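the two lines:
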Amino acid sequence: MTTSQNLASPDVAGHFGRYGGRFVPEALMATLDELAAAYAAATADPEFRAELDHLLRSYAGRPTPVTEVPRFSEHAGGARVLLKREDLAHTGSHKINNVLGQTLLTKRMGKHRVIAETGAGQHGVAVATACALLGLDCVVYMGEEDTRRQALNVVRMRLLGAEVVPVRVGSRTLKDAINEAMRDWVTNVETTHYAIGSVMGPHPFPTMVRDFQRIIGVEAREQVRELVGRLPDAVVACVGGGSNAIGTFHAFIPDEDVRLLGCEAGGDGVATGRHAATIVGGSMGVLHGMRTYLLQDADGQTQETHSISAGLDYPGVGPEHAWLADAGRASYRAVADSEAMEAFALLSRTEGIIPALEPAHALAGALQLGRELGPGAVLLVCCSGRGDKDVDTAVRWFQLMTGE
Amino acid sequence: MTATTALSAAFAKAGAEDRAVLVGYLPAGFPSADGAISAATAMVEAGVDVVEIGLPYSDPLMDGPTIQEAVHRALLGGTRTLDVLHTVEAVARTGAPTLVMTYWNPVEAYGVQPFARDLAAAGGAGVITPDLVPEEAGPWLEAAGAAGLDPIFLVAPSSTDARVALVASVTRGFVYAASTMGVTGTRGQVSGRAAELVSRVRAHTELPVAVGLGVSSREQAAEVASFADGVIVGSAFVSRLLGAGTETGGVADGVAGVRELAVQLAEGVRARSAGRVGT
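prediction for all of em together
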C-alpha cells in the first residue's frame, strides 16, 4: 500500500495512526496546548526561523558534512557507505538541533528554566550548552546508573553551569530520569519548559522534535545526490527514542524506493530478554505520555531494558516509528551489543572516526544491509554522535588496558 | 444523571450530616497483600468513607517519594493486577465504596472491558485514572458505563475553564480536584488555589468535588472540608505503614497508625465549620 503522503503528518491531536496522543496528568494539559500553539506560531514567524537557522549555522556548525567511508565499506559487501556526520555538530551529536529549537521557544514563551532527561548525556550536554548560550537555568535528570557509565558528560554539564540530578529510583536509567523530569515539570510548569530529547512524550513533542531534527535528512538528501548522482538505496539510523532516525528518515519518506532501516538495541540478544529493541520485541502500550510500542510484561509493567549504549537503553520508542513500522514504510531490526562494538572498532580503525555506541548500532546494521543489497548499493548512515564519552565502556569491552 | 451509585450515596449521606466525605488511599500489596487489606479495613472502621486502592505501577509519575517507595515494594513483592482485584473485593466487603486508582497502561494490558467487568464483579465502585484525559478516554468511558463503574477524572489548578467543563462532563461520582501543582505527598499547608479550583468546578457541574494532594492532618482536613465535598488523603496513610516496617509486628503497628490517623481525619471532615473559621 502506498501511504507516503498520509505518512507525512499526525492528526491535530498528535496521533500517528493509533499511536501518539497525550496520556498525561490533567495538570499538564493546558501547558501542552500552550506549547503546541507557541510552536505553531514560532514556525510561522520568519524571525524565529531566521534566528534558529543562524544559530544552527554559526554556533552548531551546520550543515554537517556527508563523508564516504570506503575502507569501512569493504566490509559491507561492496556497498558504498556514506555517513551523515552529526558527530561533527557542536556538543558532539545531533541533539543540538532539537535543543536550540526548544530553548529558543522557551525564551519566546517567557520561561526561564529548562529541565531535561538524559541517558547517554548527549541530550543533557546539548541542553546545558544551549541554556548557557541563552542565559536559562538548567536542571538535568540522569539515572544514577547512567551518571556512572557516562561520567564524562556529567562533568561537561556541570562545567556548562547545569545542575545534574542523579535519579535513584526504579532502574536508575533513562526511563526513571524521564519520570523525575515529569514530576518536576508538573510542579514547576509555570516557569519551566521540559525539553524532551527525543521524538517521544505527549503531543506536540514527537512532531516538534521531529521537525527540529528533520534538517539532518533534508541536508543529507541533497548531499548524497551531489556525491553519487542519485538517492541512496537505503537510509540507516539507530533508534532509542528515535530522534536521529526520524530526523534522517523524514525527508526520504516520499522517496518510496529508498529503504528506511532503524537499528534498535539488541543487547545480549532479543531472545535473552536483556535488550531494548522495542519495536522488534515489544507490544503496544502507553508510557511517558504516548501510545507506542513498549517493552512491558503481561500486566503492563515496564520491563527493565539492557543495552551497552545508555542512549538506546529505553523501553519505549517514538510513536512515529511505531506508525512507520506498522505501515511498512520503515523496517527495524535488533543489533546486539557485540555487533555494535565490532562496528565501533571497525569504523575507528578503518576511517579514523570514533562513533558513539548508539550510531555503532546503525553502522552494524549497515554492514549487514550492505551484504544483503550487494555491490553498488548506496547506504546513507546517520553517525549521530561521536564516541569520546564511550571510551571507558570500550576499554572494558575490549580490555584495551590489559598488560599496561 | 444515571441511577444512584454507591459513591453518590456516600456523598449524599455526608452532605446530609453537614460534613465532607473522607477518602483514604492505600496501594494494594503493601506492606503485603493481607497487610494492605487489614490497613484499608482499619481505615474504614475508623471513619474513612471511601477507599482508593492503588494499583502498583512501575512508572508512577504523578507520585512523590512516599507512594513511589510503597508501590515499588509492592511490585517487588510480586503484586499483580489480579491481586489488586482481590484486594478490592476484600475491602468492598466492609461496605465502603471502593475505588481503584491506576495509571492507564495496566488497564490496557488487562483489557479495558475485562478490567471494567472484573472490577465491577469484585465490588469496585469506580476508577481514578491520573494519566488519562477525557480526549483519550473514549473506550474507557464506554466500558466503565457498561460495567456500572464511576470513571473519575482530575482537574488541576492549571486547568482552563474549558478543560474543567470537559472533565466535569465525563466524570461520574465525584470530580477529583488536585489541590496544587505537583505530585502526591504531604505538605505543610493546603494550597490557596484549592478553594478557587473547587468553586470553578462547581460552576460546571452538580457533582461533588473532592480535594486531594497534600492533606495529612486533622486541621488540613477541616480546612479542606470547609469548601469541598470530599477530602482525599493518601501519602499520610502510606507513611504510617512505611514508618512501621514490614515484619509482622511492624505491620500491626502500621495498621494501628493508619487507624489512628483515620480517626483524626474523620474528626477533621466533621469540623468543617472550625475549618471555615480557621481560614
